[in-house]
Specification:
Elements (H helix, E strand, L loop, with lengths): L2 H5 L42 H14 L7 H14 L3 E5 L2 H11 L5 E5 L4 H9 L3 E5 L10 H7 L4 E7 L8 H11 L2 E5 L7 E2 L2 E2 L6 E5 L12 E5 L2 H10 L4 E3 L2 E2 L10 H12 L1 H19 L5 E3 L13 E5 L1 H4 L3 H10 L29 H7 L2 E4 L7 H16 L1 H10 L1
Parallel strand pairs: 2-3, 2-4, 4-5, 5-8
Antiparallel strand pairs: 1-9, 6-7, 8-9, 10-11, 12-13, 13-14
Helix pairs in contact: 2-9, 3-9, 4-5, 10-14
Length: 417
């Protein structure tokens, strides 16, 4: 039985019939037809029950309660806290604002230690609040913050550590907790990738002082745009709620400086609808991950990121490392081939926060972060999410295999063009 028949479809894929590639000349980059009629995206949004969402939307319009801590926002917070096993989950308009407000609510000052191999918003949230991001290297095997690298960069100005649960795989939580306690630092986790994941059997969400989640459209749980701070600290949760609402503690009474970080009722309704389908979304992600694992297995120099399947994972990202020495092609060459086929593979998180403006302009780019630089030159995220068929995954794997098998020719033609 063929791979496609064995796995079955998962949605409205768009591989062009007869567009399978057998020769280098068949590649779209070198004049062949594109493999896909429509682009394949990384993290195409999952949608829950449309009718359930529309019923909530109608209710919102009938109530004429569109924002300002409405009933759907309150329900969303309560259900999130229950899923995460925490006392409080304070929802916000997005995860970047949530992290900025958390930084203010914790009273952080000076320097904050964080990985350079992360989405730039993590660093920007620190910088935006007038603090200095101090970039640390990561463990090349996990892609997560290296505790020894953190220890080396702590100074008298350090006030906090931000760990990032990259790809939904947890940070070295216990090692970072020990370092933070010993140096009297706050410990925050950017859990944007990690909703629905566990660490040692516990849901990610209850570690450190607080954890920040993203409900952006591309995430496994989405509210169009949205975010949240999860914490077991009652006082911190109270400060977060005040700060997200301009500092109001009562009608016409402003107690502290705040901003507008509120989540709308429509976004909360989408979040609740997504939450009801979360198990289905994760099951689909897992099916896609295992399909990729099967078809990419054995291709030299192409390594799919692994997951500990004894823990819960959301399989949100399909992450491969391209080893040029073994594959014969660079990551960027592989991406160029895929993009020409309408496979919108992404170079996460190239080139690393420490090499992006404005951080590199003040010396961050001279920071020696060997593992980050290496990963930034090798990592490629492949398409995932709704609408991706299993036969699409097979077509993508055939293209990757063709490129590796003909690596010398591909690289020569890229140099000559």
């Amino acid at each position: 039985m063929s791979f496609e028949r064995r796995m079955g479809p998962t949605g409205g894929g768009c591989a062009v019939e007869g567009a399978r590639k057998r020769r280098v000349e068949d590649l779209a980059l070198f004049g062949g037809p594109r493999a896909f009629a429509e682009p394949l995206h990384v993290g195409r949004p999952h949608l829950g029950d449309r009718d359930a969402f529309l019923r909530r939307l109608t209710d919102i319009l009938d109530r004429v309660w569109l924002t300002n801590s409405g009933p759907y926002e309150q329900e969303f917070e309560q259900r999130l806290a229950a899923v995460l096993g925490v006392q409080h989950c304070v929802v916000m308009c997005n995860a970047t604002v949530a992290l900025e407000i958390l930084i203010r609510a914790l009273g952080l000052q000076g320097e904050v230690l964080l990985p350079a191999f992360t989405f730039i918003a993590t660093a920007h949230a620190v910088e935006w609040q007038g603090l200095t991001p101090v970039f640390c290297d990561v463990d090349p095997s996990t892609h997560n913050l290296d505790p020894e690298a953190v220890e080396r960069r702590i100074t008298a100005r350090s006030s906090a550590i931000i760990g990032v649960h990259l790809w939904g795989r947890p940070c070295p939580v216990e090692a970072l907790e020990e370092i933070a306690a010993r140096h009297k630092l706050a410990l925050v986790f950017d859990a944007a990738h990690a909703f629905g994941c566990t660490h040692r059997g516990r849901p990610i969400g209850g570690f450190g002082n607080a954890e920040v989640f993203s409900f952006h459209a591309t995430k496994v749980l989405n509210s169009f745009e949205g975010g949240a701070v999860a914490t077991n600290d009652d006082d911190l949760a109270d400060r977060l709620r005040v700060m997200r609402n301009f500092g109001f503690t009562g009608y016409d009474h402003v107690e502290s400086v705040g901003t507008n970080g509120k989540l709308t009722e429509v976004a909360a309704a989408m979040g609740l609808t997504s939450l009801e389908s979360l198990d289905r979304f994760i099951a689909l992600n897992r099916q896609q991950y295992h399909a990729y694992r099967e078809v990419l297995s054995g291709i030299p120099g192409v390594a799919l990121l692994s997951h500990d399947e004894q823990e819960r994972r959301n399989y949100q990202y399909i992450v491969v490392e391209i080893d040029q020495a073994a594959a014969g092609v660079t990551r960027d060459a592989m991406q160029a081939v895929l993009l020409a086929e309408r496979i919108l593979a992404r170079r996460y998180f190239f080139p690393g926060c420490h090499r992006m403006a404005p951080y590199c302009q003040r010396g961050g780019g001279r920071t020696e972060l060997a593992s980050t630089d290496r990963l930034a030159s090798r990592v490629l995220c492949l398409p995932s999410g709704s609408g991706l068929e299993m036969r699409d995954i097979a077509v993508m794997a055939d293209i990757i295999k063709l490129v590796v098998e003909n690596s010398a020719t591909v690289m020569r033609r890229l140099r000559d063009e």
